[in-house]
Amino acid sequence: MMNIQRISAIFEKDIKDFMKNMMLLMMPLIPIILALLYKQMSNGEEFPISFLYLIVGIAYSSVTSTCMMTMMAEENEKKTLRGLIQSPASMIDILVGKSLVVGLITFISLTVSLYFVGIDPFLNGKAILTLILLFVFFLFLGIGIGLFSKSISATSAYTMPVMLLFGFTPILGSLQLDEDGIVMKITDTFPIMQAIELHEKSSWMPLAIIAGWVFAAALFMYICFKKTMTDD
């Protein structure tokens, strides 16, 4: 069962650590700076939905996943994660406390970024539900990778694949690849691409596919957690 006091203590500790870590502080600025640059180059024209979800993907991959995996890896590097797990705080307390920090930073970064390029398309129930599921997917992915990463430097090897595969996926559509090719067929099933399809069509099937990605990320996180608990 979750303990609010322990979650609050972990949240306060991690938000202070976050503010002292220059690398982590730079991550929320990435989507904001990109959004500002594209805003300056747009000459006032509206951005397509695929571009808006590119900003969402960049925010979630660079802030949610990267910050979470870095925070978890830092605990591993300092040998404090096992101590936290074995403390009175449950693993749920630890993950919820850290997730609240990452969620708060992600919310601020994403809201500011979308404010510059167009936040109106996301002000409806279906879009908000999609954003929540995408956040959970990237959060679970970050936790899982952070759990098996032994050091902060090791996370850099995983950051780029996560950003390129899951954050920057809409860019593949501008590379003029064969739409019937295997690469496009596979990447079209990725979460951000399904979010774009969900936004543009009336079918709810993309939401089910995104939920499947969330389940897969949760399973990956659980496997990494069990491995962390059994490692010597």
How does this model look, in words?
This protein is mainly α. It is 77% helix and 0% strand. The mean pLDDT is 88.
Task: Give a brief outline of the structure.
The protein has about 230 residues and is mainly alpha-helical.
The arrangement of helices and strands along the chain is HHHHHHHHHHH
N→C terminal distance? 27 Å
Strand content: under 5%
Q: What would you call the shape?
A: globular
Number of strands: 0
Specify the biggest β-sheet: none
Q: Note poorly predicted spans.
A: none
Q: State the secondary-structure class.
A: mainly alpha
Could you outline the blueprint of secondary structure elements for this entry?
Layout: H1 4-20, H2 22-26, H3 29-41, H4 49-77, H5 81-86, H6 91-117, H7 125-148, H8 152-167, H9 182-187, H10 191-200, H11 205-230
Helix pairs in contact: 1-6, 3-4, 3-6, 4-6, 4-7, 4-8, 4-10, 7-10, 7-11, 10-11
Distinctive features:
77% helix; mainly alpha; globular; 232 residues
